[in-house]
Design brief:
50 residues; mainly alpha
Amino acid sequence: MFDCHDIYQTVTKIDTLLKGKDYDKVEEPMAELFELIHIAIQLSECNQAI
């Protein structure tokens, strides 16, 4: 089940990787973040406006 907290955790993970300059490890969490955003849009009222 989708949880908005998942987006926060993923953004935090990406932020930590970027601060540590672990750029090679950012691709997977970024892809995960885009999937979560896509789900959030589908589940939200914003979807009707798009």
